[in-house]
Amino acid sequence: MIKLFKYAVILFLCSAPSSLYSQNNTNLESNSLVLQQAKELYEELRCLVCQNQSLLESEAPLALDLKELIKEKLKEGKTKKEVKDFLVERYGEFILLLPTLSLQNLFLWIGPFIFLFIGIIFAYKFYTNFNRSSNKTKTLSPSEKKNVQKILDEKLE
Amino acid sequence: MLVELGHFCLALALSVSILQFVLPIIGIKLKSTRALATSTYSSYLFFCLVSFSFISLMWAYISSDFSVALVAQNSHSLKPLIYKVTGVWGNHEGSLMLWILVLSLYSLALSIIGKNIPLKIKSIVLSVQGLIASAFTGFILFTSNPFLRLLPPKLEGEGFNPILQDIGLAIHPPFLYLGYVGLSITFSFSIAALILKQADSIWIKWVRPWAMLSWTFLTIGIALGSWWAYRELGWGGWWFWDPVENASFMPWLAATALLHSSIVAEKRNTLKAWTILLALIAFSFSLLGTFIVRSGVLVSVHAFASDPSRGIYILLMLILFTGGSLALFAKNAPKLKSGNMFSPISREGAIVINNIIFSAAAATVLLGTLYPIFIDALTANKVSVGPPYFESVFIPLMVPAILLCGFSPMLTWKRAVFDNIYERIIFIFIVSILITSFLIYIRNGSAMTFLGIFLSIWLFLGTIYDFFERILRGKSFNEVAKRIVSYPRSAYGMSFAHIGVSIFILGATMSTAYKTEIETSVQIGDKIIVENKELIFESIKQNQGPNWLADVATFRISHNESDISFLYPERRFYPASQINTSEPAILSRLFYDLYIVLGEKDIKNKNFAVRVYYSPLLNFIWIGIAFMAFGGILSLSDKKHRVSYKTLRKNRNLSIK
Amino acid sequence: MKKYYYYIPLITFILLILFFSRQLFLNKDPSHLPSVMLDESFPKLEFNQLEKYNLLTIEDIFSYDKPSLVNVWASWCVPCKIEHANLMLLKNKHSIRIYGINYKDNLKKADEILNLDGNPFYSIGVDSSGRIAINLGVYGVPETFILDRNGKIRYRHVGPILEYDIRETILPILTKLEQDD
Q1: Which of A53, B407, B538, B594 has its CA at 20 to 30 Å from residue B275's CA atom?
Q2: Interface touch C134/A92, C-beta < 8 Å
Q3: What are all long-range contacts of C169-177, with beta carbons under 8 Å and residues at least 24 apart?
Q4: Shortest Cα distance from C154 to chain B (angstroms)?
Q5: In a domain? residue B119
Q6: ipTM summary value
């Protein structure tokens, strides 16, 4: 028990250095902040006239227009969310590459957890079933008796 | 004439594959060994017919026979020979021909290598292969015939898109299909096991190595596709969670779970129902991948022709194979004898967790890929599920798997005593945290970066720690050397594969987190400096292709006054379609990639827009995957897979089970 | 494991197949995108004027008490040329008022085309940057919006209006809108 405690303390101390990490130093100059946010938005928004690309990756005319629009709105001081809302009003949720956390998308977000949960349930049932079957008596069941008889008969043929 | 023969052989092949399917069934019902024995011969014949058919199609491409509609659409007389050849499978019809060719190869291999498999099992397996073959051959003949003629023939082909003339793109389908179709073998064996209600040594002897083989091919195939995308598509990205990519990733995830599970099944004679289910699911994902890519149900960058009638045929195939096999599973799997017991804390227990995580991951990718269709069917709304979703969901799922993988070599079979391993785990954990913290301290990083580097180091240390610990148990140099040599190949395989994963994670993390991107415009003579490398824009010249005009820039790359290399990014203009594309130029070195994309030209100022990406350790991604594939090959070369069937049969008959 | 657990994979699969079949048989084009602005009022946009032509204003739209069309077009757009004749047909034969939005175009060329092939538009608004059209959720050209008598957007047609579309879609919708309220 003491051992466990010792290890826990060591672990805790070891995770302390991880607090040295910091977020990527963004230049506090507002222009590059705008550009940074713009880039993030480009990655999160779909190019509507391409097959499955983000705005960042696309050079289609509509994509270029939208990118300009996004930069302008950010420069005006709008937040990322406001810009996204603006576009969703006009183009629908389809333009968002990261689906919203809405009731409609509930299963999408909860799904992975459900899958994991189902797997864990299966595993649990699996392990408990083991214990049950190893407690079974060692005599043959009627169907097993029939099988033995069949094998013996076949051998005799 | 050759083409007609090829077509005819294909039709014959259909009949043969139907016989391959039907005769064993009759053989079992009527208890006729002769009917059962025909299965091997039909597999030989099917192989010959399909090969001939495929070769005749290939000849049509090589000889630029534009009276064949497919060749006229996809080829061109000026194409280099190698691309004429690989162009055979660069389209829907041709790729299906490749599919059945590979299928026929696998069935042939089964017949030859498995000469001594008991006839009952062998014929059922071949019968299932025959059913799969008939379904696909029928699909080709009735909906996607590559031999259709074009009359009058065109004078020249239309297929001259240079983006598609790339070696990575050209050879990635064969590898991918060797993977997909290989999963049909494990599928067929599992069906046989279910039908006969026994999953014994013969079954497992085939499932493990063939799962491993398919997995290795799939790994290589997916990597080749990614590598092509990285080099050609101009954004420095290598994975886009595009539905077609996901379609190949899902079988890969299932195959990974399958191969781990089959290891347990072989070693401990347990987890058989799980392994069978995974084998059924893995092949189903292969089929599903086919459906998604060809049916027009999804929006994707590189989906093949969207044709609903083809979609319906494939849907029926899915119902038959997946539905049928899962129904068979539901009915017969409970009748399989349950295996040996093991504690949840053991090597088997770890693999059970691995099974769960990888299955959940595959299900999640499936969910994300299909979700737009669900919502559209239910509400007529359109939603997008893109990379941000997949990244935010997939990575957390994988974290526990990697953590587990790090110390799993230390877990013993059946029951692991945690006290023993505890210290080792803590030791590795501490070292990993320290190294990661140090690296993050030098270069600032986010939490995700920290996690990525930590996991990579953790996995690496965990894998080699166990190896060295076992080796160094030898007390003298000779003993240690002996241990190194006698260390089982499959264990080496595992070590290499897991190390490959750690290298991959490091490459993916570093190249994303510390990627430097510069977007600017340059004139001739300008210099761009990135990470102490200098890029000097030296000159620009014009170049012309068959259907494009290009500006080709020359960049001189130097470091500390000495030249490293030259890069020639291009900006192409296709007059016919009025499209501009960029051909990036990449400098690949072990520890970094330098990627230049030439953008729009501003004629007034003689400026060119340029994007430069510097990605550290990007090639660790490919190197890591190469290690993984190598691990798979090592594992396959282990002698245990070469136990003769005669011995197996003897042992089987002896054991009264 | 209880026997019925083994049926779970099969059941899940059956559900999946049902969805696939539905999608397949509905024969939907996955790249078809309905407008999210359906049933919303036409936005209060301000356009520039194309010389010699009436300027499209919001007042026009809201003061007109019959259903109308708003067509987004450009002289460089090939499908627009194809649908031009059909727009003339709708204007002349069916007396439908069509407003035009000229999208990212060269004004001289726009004028030339209208001179050569005829002008189906009651009034025209110029959107040189494409920015105004973004407010309508426009993806490209041509696109046509059907407005009801109250200026609400009731339908968006993407791509050129062909004879088939006039017969099967445009006219039926317009008739229905005229009979409403």
Answers
A1: B407
A2: no
A3: C170/C69, C170/C90, C170/C144, C170/C146, C171/C94, C173/C67, C173/C146, C174/C67, C174/C94, C174/C96, C174/C146, C177/C67, C177/C146, C177/C148, C177/C149
A4: 16
A5: yes
A6: 0.81
